[in-house]
């Protein structure tokens, strides 16, 4: 059992050192236990390249079995012996999605699951977990990550929004005369928008370039320009009426928000499965609300 726990922890963290901290052992003791398991099985479970630790093909195949076995033991112990306190779940979410989408919904989660223990972290970009103890990671991209199971969450379109007062001064066909707000590091830019909206128009240099959708929306909300953002972020502003669509043009994108479970063991933990199911349900409901919110026609044009 100790050998299996050493293997499970080392695989989840990608490090004997981090596994040792979890297990209360020294890194050399964890390494020794893993080597004992490998000797017993007659096969290598890890590749050890200098300071890098990665699973072999057989290690990848073996990890889900071991992880599920430990999760089943934990769940059965709780059911039979009344160890009812749920384990804490660490959820990491991109900052703008965290504030504009997740935070307003967490009250509902708490009502449904009052015994839940949730640790919520924020990230600016969709970086890998790098061995940190993250159970559920919400990332934005094309879903091609390889550090754990990947589940679709929100698929978005990109729309242009501004205050009604700003749009009232100019028809939609003349957006190039308004200050533009653009996100850096994204594939859906004003250049792509104008290629659809007004081919042949020289695209002006954006007045503002920011690294967070929340900042872009707050600039637009203050009447400082037209923001190009994902529809899920614009939805609260559209519903309140503080922003309106600046054009009926929407950019479709191959990117979206995904749930990533960096540890294979997480998909078998009941509290993680509960959170994942709840997030996917909320995403489905959000898609319906977004569709209704962006159906409002542009303010002019």
Verbal overview:
Helices cover 44% and strands 21% of the residues. Strands 3, 4, 5, 6, 7, 8, 9, 10 and 11 form a 9-stranded mixed β-sheet that branches. Strands 1-2 form a two-stranded antiparallel ribbon. Helix 1 crosses helix 2 and helix 1 packs across helix 4.
Could you outline the blueprint of secondary structure elements for this entry?
Layout: H1 2-13, H2 16-23, H3 27-41, E1 46-49, E2 52-55, H4 57-81, E3 89-94, H5 95-102, H6 106-112, E4 118-123, E5 136-141, E6 150-162, H7 164-167, E7 180-183, H8 190-197, E8 208-210, H9 213-221, E9 226-230, H10 231-240, E10 244-245, E11 251-260, H11 270-294
Parallel strand pairs: 3-4, 3-5, 7-8, 7-9
Antiparallel strand pairs: 1-2, 5-11, 6-9, 6-10, 6-11
Helix pairs in contact: 1-2, 1-3, 1-4, 2-3, 10-11
Task: Summarize the structure in short.
The model has no long low-confidence stretch (mean pLDDT 84). It contains eleven helices and eleven strands. It has helices at 2-13, 16-23, 27-41, 57-81, 95-102, 106-112, 164-167, 190-197, 213-221, 231-240, 270-294, and strands at 46-49, 52-55, 89-94, 118-123, 136-141, 150-162, 180-183, 208-210, 226-230, 244-245, 251-260.
């Amino acid at each position: 059992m100790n050998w299996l726990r050493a293997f499970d922890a080392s695989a989840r963290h990608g490090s004997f050192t981090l596994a040792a901290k979890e297990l209360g052992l020294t890194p050399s003791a964890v390494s020794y236990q893993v080597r004992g398991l490998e000797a017993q099985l007659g096969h290598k479970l890890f590749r050890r390249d200098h300071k890098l630790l990665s699973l072999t093909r057989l290690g990848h195949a073996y990890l889900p079995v071991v992880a599920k076995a430990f999760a089943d033991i934990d769940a059965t112990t709780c059911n039979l012996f009344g160890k009812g306190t749920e384990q804490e779940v660490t959820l990491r979410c991109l900052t703008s999605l965290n504030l504009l989408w997740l935070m307003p919904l967490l009250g509902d989660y708490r009502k449904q699951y009052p015994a839940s223990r949730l640790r919520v972290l924020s990230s600016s970009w969709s970086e890998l977990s790098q061995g940190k103890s993250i159970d559920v990671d919400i990332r934005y991209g094309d879903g091609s990550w390889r550090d754990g199971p990947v589940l679709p969450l929100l698929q978005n379109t990109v729309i242009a929004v501004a205050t009604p007062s700003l749009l009232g001064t100019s028809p939609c066909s003349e957006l190039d005369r308004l200050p533009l707000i653009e996100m850096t590091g994204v594939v859906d830019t004003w250049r792509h928008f104008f290629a659809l909206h007004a081919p042949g128009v020289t695209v002006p240099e954006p007045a503002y370039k920011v690294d967070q959708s929340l900042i872009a929306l707050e600039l637009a909300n203050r009447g400082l320009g037209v923001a190009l953002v994902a529809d899920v972020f614009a939805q609260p502003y559209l519903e309140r009426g503080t922003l309106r669509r600046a054009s009926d043009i929407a950019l479709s994108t191959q990117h979206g928000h995904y749930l990533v479970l960096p540890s294979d063991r997480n998909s078998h933990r009941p509290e993680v499965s509960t959170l994942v199911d709840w997030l996917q349900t909320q995403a489905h409901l959000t898609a319906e609300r977004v569709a209704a919110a962006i159906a409002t026609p542009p303010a002019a044009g």
